[in-house]
Amino acid sequence: MSFKQGFVLARRLPSKCKSQFRSFSSSGAHLSSSSPSIPTIPLTSPLPQVPPPQYAKISRDRQETKVTVLSNGLRVASQNKFGQFCTVGVVVDSGSRYEVAYPSGISHFLEKLAYMSTTKFRNRDEILQELEKHGGISDCQGSRDTLIYAMSAKTASLSSVIEILSEVVLKPKLTYEEIEDARWMIKFELESLNMKPEPEPLLMEYIHAAAFRDNTLGLAKICPAENVSVIDKRLLHTYLHNYHTPERMVLAGVGMEHDALVSVAEKYFGSAKPTWDEDSRLIAQTKGPDQSLAQYTGGIVKVEKDLSNVSMGPTPMPELAHFVIGLESCSHKDDDFIAFCVLNMLMGGGGSFSAGGPGKGMYTRLYLNVLNKHHWMYNATAYNHAYDDSGLFCIHASSHPSQLRHVVEVIIRELVNTAGVVYEDELNRAKTQLQSMLMMNLEARPVVFEDVARQVLANHHRKPPQYFYDQISEITVDDIRRVANRMLSSKPAIAAYGSLSKLPRYEDIQSALLNKAGKMPQRFSLFR
User: Does residue 154 sit in helix, strand or coil?
Assistant: First the structure.
């Protein structure tokens, strides 16, 4: 009833009813005329004749990541989360690091062949149409140590989505036509990578190849051009037979009850026989998975290329030379992993065109000491790659080729200074920024899915975000200096791309890094 309607009704009521109406309108529909009026009740007291409110309670059961191992060795992990949609997928302990006995590029092919025809679905269109019925989307991403098949759809359609997922992961047909299509897609991707003005994917390939020469993490993630025509159905089936086994997989989900996920996992993954085991003639060898540990070697990879004509549409791009220097850090299982993450945030960096604004890292060392002081520096960014058995901390810098010697000098100085003076305010800023990034990223359901899947794949359980939040808080200045000295004791890995006539010799770069913080002369120079 609106105020106007109540006023009109009150005028028409008999006088003996007006007092009761005033009591009703002032005290609420559930209060009798004898109850005190609401404005006179203190906020600390409950309202009379009003049931107490029911508040939501934080349940440990809702926050806990549950893991169940099926009889065939497949791990099923789930994290419940409020909402009508869920994200579910399979993460496989697979990737380019295991391709030592194969032509490099098999994982690249498998990524392109995902969501093609299966024993139940004739082609990709049928899979996508079936997913659309459940409001779903799909994706497949490969890395050096994992291959992820993931879907997001309505939670009520969990059974149908898991069935599609089992078909995609275990029942692909890998027809001749699909493999040929994948071949053309990879050829096109290789051509576009060499034409794009952003060379980061190529540089990450080169720096890993230099750091882990001819082993594990140094093997090519992007299929080399000479292998595009070599990889065939028999090689793919052999690799799948050896690496895509249940004990090397985790079926992870976010946004559903654990028992429901385990039930459908048993139905579609528990006893399903993969297509590559149905015809032994398609398997070249049954050699077990490669168990090699990553061997950090250091070294240099140089790719001379004229980048003066690279452009993006009508806007001309500046001619740049790219330099990446890497040092061995640690695995994500190492006690120093969190300290390296804080060091990475402390170094920060980015492109010269985005050097300001809150949250862009404008107070990181690579902004303050590099981009803000050297106008000719186009980019300076720190990265920390952590894997199961090793890691790589690197800095990517770029400028005009004529400034390449100065780029190397400036970046080496910043690397060496990580073992020197570390101020409390910059450390606290880096820790707070890392904590903020951690918590904000985990607000997204797909990010939680990948976090759950990767942790369970590596450690068989998941540590909660609060654990990492607290670990970040405990990092001290001494921790940063210790990991910096540990990093600087390794042999450098160098990747260079572009016009490299001004690039210093590898031996000069290596000798410069041997100067620890505090021992480097004030006017240190790589010029000979």
Answer: strand
